[in-house]
């Protein structure tokens, strides 16, 4: 629809007459008194002596005929009860001026504007039809965000007094309660009527004035990367539309715009055919911030086309880091139930995902508002209420956008997630989820078909797999099992295990497979980590269960699994660390040794996010403790002053000794550096000297998921990279080479 100035009295109202106006207490008392008088007169006229036959008349008699000696009664069903000769009927008294005023304000409280209009004087009605009267009240309620009213009247000492003091409290969403005290005047006219004028709504609101809500919207904050490059910002662009009265050839115009703007002709037709006034601006499309100047000039010159400058949100890197940064859309009616109190209005944009949503208050600031009475020329006559705005702030991330772009390119069109961190300060250098999307598309405007295609895409491009998807951990979990085995079950670096193809520790009826089909012989614990031999961890899991089934779940939690990492800036999932209580609650079943053995290799009920795993390995690389990852480094004001800084917070100490940590690190170094390690071929010849761990997570009925995580150099880590690839195959062979590329990009 075309755009108009949003001001009371100009919107097309949706009428709701609400409940009937209430009757004043004074009127109720008068009515009761009149009824008693009428009853007494009727009894007196009909006579109080016993009727013929000696029977006394009863007030509840149902007879309509006094035959048989029975007298008619006040409650008789007779339509015309007899009246004594010469007696006068008593008319119902008309409401007093006070009662009429009370009824008028009660109707306002009930939002029954039609009932209010019926109580308005004929003189006042000359200036307003009923429709205009209702429109004005509804328009003011909309403009001033009025939720309701309540009132009190000062009852005069004499019923004949035609002026009454009143106080109305107007309850608004945006400004709270506004109080108005004044006098309402009544005039004699077929009873009493309200001498109405707009001043009864607000004192200074005369016939030619209007209510207007001025909005003071601060510019939205900019999001920068670690090197000061703008990742998201406000920018000016062109909004292209048409003015119906200026169109010379509608069909030619539609063809022209469809071609020049690369839009579907039917969509253009629908936009320029919206019912409107001849001089309304009908928007057709908002162009990208980098739309060519010469192309814009050509469009602008076409008859009937109008181009307006518009401030929009700009994502200069397109789909790069889209899940991290998020996107914006217009507020919905459901949003406004909460956000209208914060100054948001229809047409405003709000962060819908990623940092744009998580940091909405920081980036948006607080919208300012001023409710005023304005004159015919738009001049402010008086201010009714004011709410000052609060400036927005800028965000500075730990992300390196150049590295982020390389990581996105490495993922390509795979269904995967990747994270690069600096273990030294636990800062996130890159965070990717694939497939992605272009946030600019939401600003430009998606068609219904485009939006449905996006949300119904089976690859879920809007889902941030790095933080919101949970997956079986697979063999990257085995580090926790090794740590618990050393700390709680008596295993050492020199403990030996048989790496058999099928492990029968739970009995011949419960065979457990290794990922290799050949017996690789006797392995130490460090070699077991390097080769990711399942039977090694089956043995440890079974021993831990015999000591205490709670040990392995407790260790997993102390390494940071099953809980939020508390990263600032993006939403995340908790994942699942199962134990006996969890299984009882979810499956109404007991916990068995097989559950612990399965959990020992990261299978069973264990679910983790890629961010949780990256954060856990960052803690190991650093030597502990487990900390919150850092994504937002600082918040700055418009003048560049630092408002807030973020440092990693301690989550928990790693539940291991220095000796256990050295065993874990030695095993991880052997993964990439020992010829028997799962990732030795992947990192052969690498200058990085990495340590890492592979993981191949079972996915019943489908191809396995591939995990790989590595940090480098192993003795003084500068960067850590993790990749999770849905249905990607083998951790070392498939995900490993991609992690190597990420590390080499992070450590030039």
Please render the helix and strand layout as text:
Layout: H1 25-46, H2 97-109, H3 113-118, H4 122-125, H5 130-143, E1 146-153, E2 163-172, E3 176-188, E4 192-194, E5 210-216, E6 223-224, E7 230-242, H6 250-260, H7 265-272, E8 282-286, H8 293-300, E9 305-314, H9 322-325, E10 328-330, H10 333-339, E11 349-351, H11 354-358, H12 360-364, E12 368-374, E13 380-387, E14 394-397, H13 401-411, E15 416-422, E16 427-434, H14 440-444, H15 448-455, H16 478-488, E17 496-498, E18 502-503, E19 512-513, E20 522-524, H17 525-531, H18 534-547, H19 551-558, H20 580-587, H21 593-599, H22 610-622, E21 626-627, E22 632-636, E23 642-645, E24 650-652, H23 658-673, H24 680-683, E25 691-697, E26 705-712, E27 719-725, H25 731-746
Parallel strand pairs: 6-14
Antiparallel strand pairs: 1-2, 2-3, 3-4, 5-12, 6-7, 7-8, 7-9, 10-11, 12-13, 14-22, 15-16, 15-27, 17-20, 18-19, 21-24, 22-23, 25-26, 26-27
Overall, the morphology is elongated
Query: Which residues form runs of ≥5 with pLDDT under 50?
Result: 1-7, 9-84
Category by helix and strand content: alpha+beta
Sketch the major β-sheet.
Answer: 7 strands, mixed
How many alpha or pi helices?
Answer: 25
Q: If you compute it from the alpha carbons, what radius of gyration comes out, rounded to the nearest whole angstrom?
A: 39 Å
Distance between the termini: 54 Å
Average pLDDT, rounded to a whole number, is: 88
Percent in helix? 25-40%
Number of strands: 27
Question: How much of the polypeptide forms β-strand, as a percent range?
Answer: 15-25%
The oligomerization state is single chain
